[in-house]
Specification:
The structure holds three protein chains of three kinds. By secondary structure, chain A is of the alpha/beta class. A four-stranded parallel sheet of chain A has the order 2-1-3-5, with helices on one face. Chain A has a four-stranded parallel sheet with strand order 8-7-9-10, sandwiched between helices. A two-stranded parallel ribbon of chain A has the order 4-6. Chain A starts with a strand and ends in a 6-residue tail after the last helix. Helices cover about 35% and strands about 25% of the residues of chain B. Helices cover about 55% and strands about 10% of the residues of chain C. The longest helix of chain C is centred in the middle third of the chain and has 28 residues. Chain C is globular, with a radius of gyration of 21 Å. Classes of the chains: A alpha/beta, B alpha/beta, C alpha/beta. At the A-C interface, helix 4, helix 5 and helix 12 of A face helix 4 and helix 15 of C.
Chain lengths: ~300, ~325, ~375
């Protein structure tokens, strides 16, 4: 049995779990290549036009390996936390893919509720049956995969420069270096260190949420908002870069809430779309970096007590 | 006997005359310039020297200004441009399966099966890939739009240019120019991008079968035709009157309508010299506050538009709504 | 307190009945228009969906008329509508308006106590006794149901009427006369009269008109301004149309959803294409398309605001349904409400397409 795992969306967070689980079940796992021009083109070609870039890229990954595997994993991630969602498109991801790409192999489309080990195991049981009927094998593979996943750490935290920004955004925008055009490396060249939300304590993130009228019902909205607002208070950050996909419904709300709260703290919003123009991104981050440098110089001339 | 077709679009107003055998005897292309009434009158000024009212067996209108045009000239049919384009294409190519139409400001795809429209799509939101966008790029590159396509054919390779949005495409082209790509490569890249955009956007998920007709003003651009053929993998055809297909369809549909009704409503070419103008007012009949447009001829009102309840339209004998039904 | 609420289809008629019954001062915002959208677009986040922008316009117009409290329904996701209240509060505050917001949210999200507290905020303004308050609520629901029923009948009969335009005129007159009443009882009386008139309309049952289902995102199919008055236009063309998502359906659906016995048929029909709820009304959209095809409709028109997350999923699924059931579906994406001509062209071409399909089927070629 050859199982295909598309390298898109939440792959960057949860690939150890998926990879280990299916490997331990005895399947051959095929992972699509890193996102590239060809995958993007495939995605744009197949996916419904109104969707956002990450969803299109995911379509491209699926299309690129659909003939190389006998079973496709399309993670229908419903919830990572109780009473929270990722996004409606995640809930309907299998429908989008299966109705847009012809000639698909069978796919695992069971909903994933990952708010507890037990709820995730429910998914593993149904998903595992596609590969093997041995329930003990499935349980062993799940245990092993769960273990590997809990050892897995994502996040960027570089400290070699004086200036540091908080890099905010959905994981697939932060970690897919094709769609974000190697943003972290670009910033490093400009002499800017980067830190992502994984290094901010959940407690601090949730503290900020309590100041909202309504608790956001999207996981990444809660995390991004809490992290960004907390970053303003942390001495180590000079600015925030929010990396967002064009037409992302969730970001359209969160960016607004952040803007509303942070006053004149430097914030740069980068919108990603399928256009190849790196020039636009370069111009923006260079200008932002100049601004941050001027600000820090300016601030260091002011006595600290005033 | 002749049939008259008028296509009032946002960019151009086209008039055609066809004889009994549906051969085009007259083609007039005018810029609408935001004043459809004047454009129609200008067209009629040209026609009235050759034809008089009795020569016209039927008159039809289409395009976004079809309703206003219909009330002014007394049309027998006022149909949407999708049906008009398909009607015209079927007249000359019975076996057409797909129509690609790219005009001044919008683009369409029409799929046919056994001479019946089975599906269609149209973009009106974004101007990427339409005639006015190409005009502007040609201007920016300082090339005559007529030669634009030839440049693309000269290129040995194509540069990838973003095509989803006119704004991105433009900034991307400028960027590629600065990187030192030559003009033919850039123009071919642009044609490829626009074709990619068309196929990924308007034609998404629609199976394009030959025979394909390429219509609308952009069909004159050989670079675009080549890019389409390249992407589709088979030859596509540009009909003789590619930029008049809407008006031709309108004339043919008017012919059918008169065959049914037995007489034409055509009001004659004297319109050209009459003082026709429009005035708008806000109707105060209810809380909808419709913006009602009145069309005057000298001092008589010959048409009303924009009232949702029909209070004004129904005052006139020939309402545009009856024509559409 | 002077209460107001966003415009959405016929809700204002029911709201009038409710506030009159409770004896609370209220402002009905003017019907949605270009100025609402202009105001909304100017102040709203750029990529937010169309309903949000129109609502902002409604609020500003209502504030000009002295409103100080905004009553708004909420939801707990996963679509953006549930976050409207938070953004709209911030937005109005930053524009310098100090408004009270009362958000009626699902109890499973905010808890029964909080919901009670919020409803109490409204009902404590009323001087009526409890029985009268309950009556006011029941009457408002009755008004809502009646209006939706009249609308449904008019849209369906429009294809069968002998005298062109009769259904549309009755519907327009009915709304006008109902709005002139100052209490729920006379409203219901008037509506019943019109309902009688509609049901005794001179119709030609042998007509067999085109039948089109209106499906998609609930706000854009209920609020006529946001869909270029599509239902009225279909009535003009003598096409019968049907739309299952109505304000009264929404109320019923919200009330039954905790018990999971809401919209069973729709969900059953959608199951093959979208097995679980994904937010918004995507499941309903798909279910409606399947139902309409089974009920002998000729086609369906999906309407959605640009960037609407759940409806983008249904838009991806609809072509498959179209193919499977040989059932034409057209999607109209609305955003800045410009380019009406383009929408009308598409609508007419769609009607043409459906008519020719029929002729083709009849002539058997």
């Amino acid at each position: 049995m050859i199982v295909g795992i598309p390298k898109g969306l939440l792959y960057y967070k949860y690939n150890p779990f998926l990879f280990t689980f299916f490997t331990e079940l005895g399947a051959n796992v095929v992972v699509s290549e890193d996102t590239n021009k060809n995958i993007l083109d495939l995605g744009v070609k197949h996916c419904v036009d109104e969707a956002c870039l990450p969803i299109k890229i995911f379509h491209g990954h699926v299309a690129s390996i659909k003939n190389k595997c006998e079973l496709m994993v399309i993670p229908r991630v419903m919830q990572l936390e109780k009473n929270e969602y990722i996004c409606p498109k995640f809930c309907g991801l299998p429908e989008m893919v299966l109705n847009s790409i012809a000639g698909m192999p069978p796919a695992i489309t069971e909903p994933i509720y990952a708010y507890s080990k037990n709820s995730l195991y429910k998914w593993a049981k149904t998903a595992g049956k596609y590969v093997t009927s041995d329930i003990f094998k499935i349980r062993r593979a799940f245990k092993c995969a769960y273990e590997v996943q809990s050892q897995h750490r994502t996040g960027i935290n570089s400290n070699q420069h004086d200036i540091k920004i908080a890099l905010v955004g959905h994981p697939y925008n932060v970690y897919d270096n094709f769609s974000n055009m190697n943003l972290a490396a670009k910033l490093d060249k400009l002499g800017i260190s980067v830190e992502t939300m994984e290094f901010t304590n959940d407690f601090l993130i949730n503290m900020e949420i309590n100041n909202l009228y309504k608790r956001p019902f999207w996981t990444y909205a809660r995390e991004n908002y809490g992290f960004a607002i907390n970053a303003v208070k942390e001495k180590r950050f000079d600015g925030i870069i929010y990396i967002s996909s064009f037409n992302c419904g969730i970001d359209s709300i969160i960016i607004e809430l952040i803007k509303d709260k942070i006053g004149n703290f430097p914030l740069l919003i980068l919108k990603l779309d399928e256009h190849t123009g790196e020039a636009g991104i370069d111009t923006r981050i260079e200008a932002f970096s100049d601004m941050l440098e001027r600000r820090t110089k300016h601030e260091s001339n002011i006595p600290t007590n005033g | 006997m002749h049939y008259l077709g008028v296509d009032v679009g946002s960019v151009s107003t086209d008039l055609v005359m066809m004889d009994e055998n549906l051969n085009v005897t007259e083609k007039i292309y005018l810029r609408t310039k935001g004043n459809p009434i004047k454009a129609i009158q200008d067209g009629f000024k040209i026609l009235k020297n050759k034809y008089h009212k009795g020569d016209i067996a039927a008159a039809g209108t289409t395009g976004s200004g079809r309703a206003i045009a219909a009330s002014i000239i007394g049309a027998d049919a006022a149909k949407n441009e999708i049906t008009a384009h398909a009607t015209a294409a079927l007249e000359t190519h019975k076996n057409v399966r797909t129509i690609i139409e790219i005009g001044g400001q919008d683009s369409k795809i029409i799929l046919l099966n056994n001479g019946i429209i089975s599906d269609f799509a149209m973009n009106t939101v974004c101007a990427a890939g339409t005639g006015s966008f190409l005009d502007r790029q040609a201007e920016r590159l300082d090339i005559n739009i007529e030669e634009f396509g030839e440049y693309a054919l000269r290129a040995t390779s194509s540069v990838r240019i973003a095509g989803r949005c006119a704004v991105f495409a433009e900034s991307d082209m400028i960027h590629k120019q600065q990187l030192g790509y030559n003009q033919p490569e850039i123009i071919r890249g642009l044609c490829d991008a626009l074709v990619r955009n068309y196929l990924n956007n308007i034609a998404k998920g629609k199976a394009i079968f030959p025979k394909v007709l390429f219509q609308g003003g952009v069909a004159a651009n050989r670079g675009m035709k080549a890019s389409f053929e390249n992407a589709l993998g088979f030859e596509i055809f540009v009909p003789e009157h590619y930029n008049m297909m809407g008006a031709i369809g309108a004339a043919i549909m008017a012919k059918f309508a008169v065959e049914k009704s037995g007489k034409t409503n055509f009001r004659g070419f004297e319109l050209a010299d009459k003082n026709i103008f429009s005035r708008s007012m806000e109707c105060e009949g209810c809380s909808n506050s419709c913006e009602v447009v009145k069309i005057f001829e000298n001092n008589n009102i010959i048409g009303y538009f924009g009232d949702r309840c029909g209070k004004w339209c129904n005052k006139l004998q020939h309402t545009s709504k009856d024509l559409l039904a | 307190m002077k209460a107001t609420f966003p415009q959405m289809g016929n809700i204002y008629i029911a709201a009038k009945a409710l506030f009159e019954g409770l004896g609370i001062e209220y402002v009905i915002p003017p019907k949605c228009s270009k100025t609402d959208l202009d105001i909304g677009s100017l102040h709203s986040p750029e990529e937010i969906c169309l309903p949000f922008k129109l609502m902002i316009g409604n609020y500003i117009h209502a504030i000009e008329k002295g409103a100080d409290t905004i009553i708004l329904a909420g939801s707990c996701g996963p679509c953006r509508f549930g976050e409207y209240c938070e953004l709209q509060m911030n937005l109005l505050k930053s524009m310098g308006y100090n408004m009270n917001f009362i958000v009626i949210d699902y109890p499973k999200d905010i808890g029964m106590m909080e919901l009670y507290r919020r409803i109490h905020k409204i009902s404590s303004e009323s001087k009526k006794n409890t029985i009268q308050k309950i009556n006011a609520l029941l009457n408002a629901l009755k008004v809502l149901n009646l209006m939706d029923e009249i609308e449904e009948t008019a849209h369906m009969y429009a294809g069968f009427e002998r005298n062109k335009g009769e259904c549309k005129n009755l519907l327009i007159e009915c709304k006008k006369d109902t709005l002139e009443c100052d209490n729920a009882y006379s409203m219901i009386k008037i509506m019943n009269q019109y309902n009688q008139k509609l049901n005794h309309l001179s119709v030609d049952i042998n007509k067999n008109p085109l039948k089109i289902a209106i499906i998609g995102e609930i706000y854009t199919i209920i609020e006529p301004y946001s869909n270029f008055y599509i239902e009225e236009k279909l009535m003009d063309y003598g096409v019968s149309s049907s739309r299952k998502l109505t304000p009264s359906w929404w109320v019923k659906n919200a009330a039954l959803s905790p018990l999971k016995i809401n919209s069973l048929k729709i969900r059953k029909n959608a199951k093959k294409y979208i097995p679980i709820g994904i937010g918004g009304h995507a499941v309903e959209c798909i279910g409606e398309a399947v139902t309409a095809s089974k009920n002998g409709f000729d086609g369906a028109i999906q309407i959605l605001p640009m960037g609407c997350m759940p409806e983008i999923v249904s838009k991806a699924v609809l072509p498959t349904i179209s193919k499977d059931l040989d059932f034409p579906v057209m999607s109209l994406i609305v955003d800045d409400m410009d380019g009406e001509a383009g929408y009308i062209t598409r609508m007419e071409a769609f009607i043409d397409l459906l008519e020719r399909r029929r002729k083709n089927a009849l002539s058997g070629c």
